[in-house]
Amino acid sequence: MTDTGTPPTLVVGLGCQRGCPASTLRALLDQALQAHKIGLHQIKALASIDLKRDEPGLIELAAQLALPLMYFSSEQLKGYKPRLSHHSDIAFERTGCYGVAESAALALAEQLAQAPAKLLISRQKYAQATLALACVA
């Protein structure tokens, strides 16, 4: 990334099964950030699909991290399909989009930065959850 003096906009996209605990999401987040040498303080927000609006684990994780958690409809996420590293037919059957974590991360990063985003960490799967990290430099 080129150094423009402003820190990059980093957004974590999360997908999870119903009832996935915050501790599982946190373990996945910590593991991914550590592997890519990214500090938790660099993350601006969390994103998911609106079907998860009432998911306790996601809400609890956002509260623990004191980060905003934004949701997108499958309609909003569908357009990101060509940019996903992985297309999940199961995710599509259940949600109407082919990858919740990656598309939600891209959608929110672009919304916050008003510029094109790219995946810095493509879909990571762990137990009942998926995570992706999008970045706008």
How would you describe the overall organization of this protein?
The chain has 137 residues and is an alpha/beta fold. It has one domain: Nucleotidyltransferase, domain 5, CATH 3.30.420.180. The chain is globular and about 40 Å long. A 5-stranded mixed sheet has the order 3-2-1-5-4. The model has no long low-confidence stretch (mean pLDDT 94). The termini are close together. The chain is 36% helix and 26% strand. It contains 5 helices and 5 strands, in the order βαβαβαααββ. α1 links the parallel β1 and β2.
Question: What key attributes describe this structure?
Answer:
137 residues, alpha/beta, Nucleotidyltransferase, domain 5, 5-stranded mixed β-sheet, 5 helices, 5 strands, 36% helix, globular
Brief overview, please?
The protein is an alpha/beta fold and 137 residues long.
